[in-house]
Amino acid sequence: MIELNNVSYTYPHTVQPALHRITISLEKGRCMMVTGPSGAGKTSLCLAASGILHHEYGGKKEGSVIIDGKDVTDYRSLSDLAQNVGVVFDDPESQMIFTTVEEEILSALEYRGLSAVAVEERLSGIMKTTYLEELKDRSPHNLSGGQKQRVALAATLALGNDILILDEPTSELDEHATKRIAGILRDLKNQGKTILLIEHKFGHFREMVDTLVVMENGRITSGGVPDAVLEDDHIRGMVLPDFSGIKKNVRAADTGEPVISVQNLTYRYGDVLALSDISLTIRKGEFIAIVGENGSGKTTLVKHFNRLLSPTSGDVVVNGKNTKDCSIAALASDVGLVFQNPDHMFFADTVREEIAYGVKNLGIENGDAVIDAALRDAGLTGAAGLYPRWLSRGERQQLGIACVVAMQPSVIVLDEPTTGLDGYEALLVITILKKLQENGHTIVIITHNLDIANHCADRIITMENGKIISDTGGA
Amino acid sequence: MRMAEILQYVHKDAFLHRLHPYTKIAFIIVVSIMCLITTNLFFLSLMVLAMLAFAAYSRLLAESLQQLKLILVMSIIFILITIITMPNGDTIGYIVPQGVPFIGGLIPITSGGITIGLVLTLRFVVLIFAFQLFLISTQPRDIVHTLEKVGLPIDYILMFIIALRFIPTLQIEGQRIHEAQLARGFNPGTGFVGKIRSVAPIAIPLVSNALLRSNVLGLTIDMRGYRTGRKTHVRERVLARRDCAVMGVLAVAACGFAALVLLQVV
Q1: Which residue of B has its CA nearest to A362?
Q2: pTM
Q3: Residue A275's beta-bridge partner residues?
Q4: A11 and A59 in contact (C-beta within 8 Å)?
Q5: Residue A250: its pLDDT value, please?
Q6: Who wins on pLDDT, A194 or B8?
Q7: CA-to-CA distance for B177 and B112, rounded, in angstroms?
Q8: Contact A109 B232 (CB under 8 A)
Q9: Which of A338, B61, B168, B235 makes an SS bond possible with A414, Cβ 3.0 to 4.6 Å?
Q10: CA nearest neighbour of A83 among A92, A74, A91, A96
Q11: Is B155 left (phi over 0), alpha (psi -120 to 50) or beta?
């Protein structure tokens, strides 16, 4: 169904090819999973395999792409290609054009030349397959990440094409939502769809993947039946990372002095009770993982640590200061927060300037030395002069950490630090955090990855519906 | 997080929602013409009340009043501008009291200035309410169908729909970026230069992310075939009896209004 023969591609104004002599072949009804580090060219491969690259992008192209027996250059336009291929891009929010779920899917169906009856039939079928029936009147900004992803998938299914290409459909999702997407894709494969999947979470898709392809630096470094590919230790570490052995010195939780103490914290907005009577003490030098499903209150809780949110009732005391009496700027030197998507903070022209921003804001002395140290701690020494947005996702995450480290907070909080990273990148981030812990920082991470929580954290806090339901470190 | 959802479709089953988009467009046109022609303060105030009553009848009053703050601020600005730029009629007082040495008695407040200011404000309020009622009660899909039938090119229609659709998305994203920068000790800055400088840490990520978004959005539109032009018409709205009734009322109102204008009552 899809064939790439010796495809090389270089984006305009760049030297390094994004794709280098790629040859793959995906047969009807099969599923191919492509994995590899961030920035390896997986998204470019997605664009090439869907024909978008040849129709929409400039730059240097070599080799041929054949979709459904026809060379992509023989298709007249993207709309023509869209009769054969369905693509789900990696940002579901940008793929929602209308204001309710049902409208979104219905609108995609209306352009397929079907009869009105067939449209209605297919609509209800798709809503059922993607479990969206109950959400049909919701608007996009009131949906969770997993729900949005299902809508994007549903609107693509509406096209009724046999070929489906998905670019990291589960990267922002928790365990539960990932399983749901995996289940839907498995059903679709059983219905005979041909699926090209860009993913990191091989474990969830193991049963349905026929071919596993590994990309590094724009090249295919391995490919074939998953079990055979995974015999290689290097690839095994990338696809199924092993975090055991990270946790060296198990600290007794009650030795350090308290750095953050939360007392009977309740937070509500509108009618929603987001946090309910939370009490928690975080001690100096701890490495804590907060786990729980989307919407359980994890991010809401950590936003109280630096007063981005103020308690409806209760107190948060950081390094002896009640946050009620401090400004957010003043707390920035106590608690550093790295958000889930580091792109929300980058605006400078170089990595170095980006780090310098926080340092200047806080008026830290010896700025240059501090920045150098932060670059080193985050493993970015060689990247100081680069433009932040050109870094790979993994490097951007490291930069997010460097920006916060340079502000020298005693507590560093990270929201989903391993999202969108391959095994080695995730391992690198965790190693960096472990080192920061050894240097005396207190680390709090929010994560969906239970493997990371179990193997790396000294203490695991589980949240559900705005409450802490378990805490391995005790109060 | 709940945000003020500016100009977003609200899913309900009420009177306005059930009307055909044509009827609602006719409503906007008649209301706009009326409020732009008349300068009668009493008549304009009646129109504002009518809009509110209509919103309440369609169970959209709370949503309509979301922009109240914006409307109040704009009204004050309108009135101030007209007082300063269009003095006319009796002088009622002065913005700078006469007792102040040297500059006392500057910028007179005139009855004519206030009247023009009020007229502009009330027109503005009527127009905002009318457009808002249309947008929050009509599904974007129906707007697309209707505008397509009127003969507008699909690219322009999608542009309009997308501009509206992404208001809350950008709002939420702006909020997130603001929080991320606050956590880095972001200082909103003082003075004019400081204010301008402090825009960069928020505006640059917001614009860069939006550009990335627009790329994916553009590809999505193509890959879903929205621009092919072949279309199955599903769940199309038909003009119902209530549409005829509303159109009738609009026609009577328009005639009545024309008569009043000819008689120089309004």
Answers
A1: B185
A2: 0.86
A3: A267
A4: yes
A5: 55
A6: A194
A7: 46
A8: yes
A9: A338
A10: A74
A11: alpha
